[in-house]
Structure formats: structure tokens, C-alpha cells
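Quick check before the chapter quiz. The format below is the same one you will see on the exam, so make sure you can read both the input and the output lines.
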Amino acid sequence: MRLPSSPYLLEWPRHVQLELHPGAGETLDSICGGELQVLQRRTGYRFTLDPILLAHFAVFEGGAHRGRLIDLGTGSGIIPLVLAKRLGRKDITALELQPGLYSLAERNVYLNRCEQQVTLVQGDLRHVEQFFAAGSFSHVLCNPPYRTCTRGRSSLTVEKAIARHEVACALPDVARAARHLLASRGGLCMVFPAARFAELAGVLREHRLEPKTARMVHPRADRPAKLVLLHAVKGGRADLTVLPPLVLHAEDEHAFTEEVSAMVE
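Here is the expected output.
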């Protein structure tokens, strides 16, 4: 795919030799029934179930089955890889701030032979105008850092802290970036703590991103929701649909429900 000319953009696909085997302090993990192989660091940021849930929600509930799409803060590249390998999406761009995670995402993209479907860009979502023209995408996905900042974290956990805590980006930054990137009537899909749903909806509305579809994610059917999956539309009308809840675990806390198993196995 062709990207706007910018001094910040690297050539893609890059014709370089990449190490596609796990190195010291790394693991190689299989997900989605073995369709995806993912390199991760043992002590750095490691992905959770959230990006897998978000990718499926975006395609099946957020209309992201077609159109140009970008993942903000891609980490090790899980969302674009699930979209490309499991859900058949193409024309995917992924933006990552941290050089270490960008390098890991690049290796994962090549490891899974997705370099023609996925384009990686290293950069800060707070400055997306340096990389992309306004209205460049039909869909924005984001699994943002949503834990509040904490003090006293050692240098060994800086990568994890930036990925999970509001250190280098907060909710208003994501909303501003999505508003810039989305074409009119384009959609933003996010996963966020259910306890912050009111805050999420309020901030999005301040940036003309109207919540349209929400789905609460419960660890078990008899427990309160921990997460919310939300689809918002740029310039949309106020008309929110709340879907039936997504329950992760059945009676056995170590076993996924049938719906979740279909996503991860």
C-alpha cells in the first residue's frame, strides 16, 4: 500500500534479514488454533485476550470487514495479525510508539507472512498528523493503555508500563487521533474497562465520535463486567445499541465459553 510521504516513515515492506526465531528472553507462542505464531518477551509486555476480542468485535459488530483500517498502539502486532490471518482482512496499518515493540511486531508480521496485508509504522499516536492525512481511514482500532499511572516502576518494566498505563497516552489522545484519522462516518472500535464506560463515552462525544454499539465483557455470567467493547462513529447520531454480554468463562474458570473458544482456538 502507498503511504503519505513523510521523513518519519520507513520503507515497507523492508527488505532486511530478520531473526524469526525466539532469542534470549523471548518465547514463541501459538494462538488462534495454531494459525498465528507470536514472538514475545518473557519479562516485557505480553498480550492478553483483549486484542483478540477487539479484532472480532470490530469485524462482526463494528463494520470493519472492509475499508482501510489502522490499529493504534499495536504492541507486538496481535490485532493486525488476527485481522489478516483469522479474519481475512487486508490493507491494515499498525502504529507503534516503542522501538522494541515495533521491532517485535515487525518480526511477527514476517514470521506469519503478512507483510503484504499489514504495514507497520513507528510513531506516536499523539502526532498522527505527521504520518497520515486527515480522513485517511474507514476504521480505527485501539486497545489503549487504560490503567492509571503509578509510581516507582523499575526500568525492567518500562515497556510494560507504557503499554498498559496512561504514561505516554491517555483517552483524550486516542479520541483526537481517531477523529483526525477517520473519514466522515468512519468507525472507532475500542476495548476499555467497564468501570470507565461513562468516561469513555463522554470523551468520545467531545471529539464528535458517537457511541453506537457496546458489548460488556464478563469473566463469568454471575460476575460484573470487567471490560466493554465499544464501536463509535465519527459524526454519527446518538443511538446506542447494547448487545448481549460476552461471557469469557463457563463453570470451569479455566475453560472458555463456546463463543470465546471459537475466537482463540
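If your answer matched, good. Residues 99-111 form the longest helix (13 residues).
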